[in-house]
Design a protein that fits this description.
Layout lengths: L3 E2 L2 E2 L2 H20 L8 H18 L8 H21 L6 E4 L6 E3 H14 L1 H14 L2 H11 L1 H12 L8 H8 L3 H26 L1
Length: about 210
């Protein structure tokens, strides 16, 4: 694709230099965008892809500066990514296994806990008792939702006359009447508390 800036056709080398020069500004736009759905890695990727697209589609004859065009491109991509993330099932990797140090998805941990319930019911009950004491009522409610998602999907569908198949942040927020930012914060708190309890229980078992 031929790329022109201010009417001048850019060589491949000039294109790469142009991208390099403007990437800091592009990332600054993305970095200032606040959303619980966007990680730094996602923002970095959007800053780069939006910059490349802005350069390919920019038309100086329309009167806008390139920085203005880039700002629109980056913010539109950020808005789109947030909209997509709101509809995705919850998946936050922040549980660390005491034995291996591996990080696991919260749902993977919950699945393992169900296996643990069968293989070591004493340890499992100790874990649940400790969580009951350590978590706030809202956190216990969220944990129950995470551990029995289908139950809440069914309740949501019945109440709101929808046909959802997977749990997502929007649904939880609507059910509990809390913001998505609050859900994200509380889920991370639950995972941190759970990890601390697991480490303590494993230490006592040795």
């Amino acid at each position: 694709m031929k790329i022109y800036v201010l009417g001048k056709k850019l060589s491949e080398k000039e294109v790469q230099q142009f991208l390099k020069d403007y990437y800091p500004y592009s990332y600054l736009i993305a970095e200032k965008y606040r959303s619980p759905y966007l990680t730094d890695d996602v923002k970095e990727n959007i800053a780069w892809t939006a910059l490349e697209r802005a350069l390919k589609t920019y038309d100086s004859e329309k009167g806008a500066s390139f920085k203005s065009w880039l700002y629109i491109a980056v913010t539109n991509d950020l808005h789109s990514e947030v909209a997509k993330m709101k509809k995705r099932p919850i998946s936050v990797r922040d549980i660390e296994e005491p034995e291996t140090g591996e990080r696991k998805d919260i749902f993977e941990f919950i699945a393992d806990s169900k296996v643990l319930q069968q293989s070591d019911p004493t340890f499992y009950n100790e874990l649940l008792d400790a969580l009951e004491k350590a978590l706030t009522p809202r956190q216990r409610q969220l944990l129950d939702i995470l551990m029995t998602p289908q139950k809440y999907v069914d309740e949501f569908n019945q109440k709101y006359k929808t046909e959802a198949t997977k749990l997502n942040y929007d649904m939880i927020g609507k059910m509990l009447n809390i913001s998505i930012a609050s859900i994200t914060y509380e889920v991370h708190k639950i995972q941190k508390i759970t990890n601390e309890i697991l480490q303590k229980l494993n230490g006592n078992a040795r």
